[in-house]
Fold this protein.
Amino acid sequence: MSSACLLSGTTAALIPAAGGGTRLGLGHKAFVEVGGLSLLARSVAALAPHVDEVLVALPDGMELPSGLNARAIVGAETRQDSVRRLLRATVADTVLIHDAARPFLPADIIYALLEAVAETGAATVALPVADTLVGAGEGELWGAAVSRDGLWAVQTPQGFRRELLLRAHEQAALDGHAATDDAGLVARQGGQVRLVRGDARLFKVTTPGDLALAQALAPVWDAGS
């Protein structure tokens, strides 16, 4: 049974992948390969069994590779604007927003997220912060310690009732407000966002070091899937 059966109506996974990911220096980041599969292909494969459709926002003029179980729309210059376009391109009742650059997405995380969305209307995967946190003083010297109690590092997917998130995006556009993720836009409107415990393997491939870690993890991940 699909995890989407937890929710009434239909569910779509939305992947904003119109950015270039220039820090890796390997072309469009979503199409960088890890273990013989692109980051985007791995994310689509993880999401597709649990939703009714997968939509991807790509740069103008770029197309999805054949065989990918998704459809594409033209994205925007910013991630936030691309997500808004994706929300307008689906009629699904519930949406999961996911970064293509988080290729190792466990099925149990998706299931737990959908359960939370069914209860609250908005939820995000996140992990409690485990590292010691300090502020940097002048000259990047050790500054004041920051308590990590109650702090969580936000991951994706994030899940929402589509109309709730669309209203938050439309209001943010009217206000000229930018947020680092979609849950932040819902919280800005006074919405409650449930935190769903994530997974350390759900890291985002951003730097060459992240890519090397992903290359090392891919064979283990594939053997267990």
Observations:
- Confidence is low (pLDDT under 50) at residues 1-5.
- The first helix runs from residue 39 to 47.
- The two ends are 18 Å apart (CA to CA).
- DSSP finds six helices and eleven strands in the chain.
